[in-house]
Amino acid sequence: MAAVVAVVLGLGAGWATNYFGSGKNLAAATPQQCAAAQTAWTKAANAQTGISESEPASVRSGFIEARDAMASVDDVPAGIAEDWEAAHAFYTTVADALEAEKAGDAEGIAEAAQVASTKVDTDDMIATSKRITRYVNADCNA
């Protein structure tokens, strides 16, 4: 469980940081695409803010809500499509493992989180998160 919570803390830093260091310009999005991506990314971030290792149900719901927020975007801006897919795959891997456990089963959630943490690349997700954040913070015109 600690590994999954550590990822959330790392991702939180990515969401909170206005990161402009990629060195490349990404394709701009339509206003509708940008609004959908910004809204979903904010929902995913907000879902993660309430996660606490001492409350396994919060870990479970935080990842499920983040996965579902990202899945809600039908037309992902081309400039972040690959990163969006990678982030969504990360959330899906963890959320699906946690969702299989009952919300009140702290031990089951902890075990599922541990197993899921071995199936994802947390460093890659943190870098991906920074790129998505940079893009949506620049109104999808980075």
Task: Give a verbal description of the structure.
With 142 residues, this protein is mainly alpha-helical. It has one domain (28-137). The chain has six helices and no strands. The chain has helices at residues 2-16, 31-49, 56-71, 81-99, 106-117, 122-137. Helix 3 runs antiparallel to helix 4. The longest helix is centred in the N-terminal third of the chain and has 19 residues, at 31-49. The radius of gyration is 15 Å and the shape is elongated. It starts with a helix and ends in a 5-residue tail after the last helix. Mean pLDDT is 85; it is low at 12-23.
Distance between the first and last residues' Cα: 35 Å
Number of strands: 0
Which band does the percent of strand residues land in?
A: under 5%
Helix proportion range = 55-70%
**Rounded to an integer, what's the Rg over CA atoms?**
15 Å
Oligomer: single chain
- What overall geometry do the principal axes of the alpha carbons give? elongated
Number of helices: 6
The profile of the biggest β sheet is: none
Class of secondary structure makeup: mainly alpha
Outline the low-pLDDT stretches.
12-23
List SSEs in N-to-C order. HHHHHH
Count of spatially separate domains:
1
The average pLDDT value, as a whole number, equals 85
Kindly summarize this structure in a few lines:
This protein has 142 residues and is mainly alpha-helical. It is built from six helices and no strands. About 8% of the residues have low confidence.
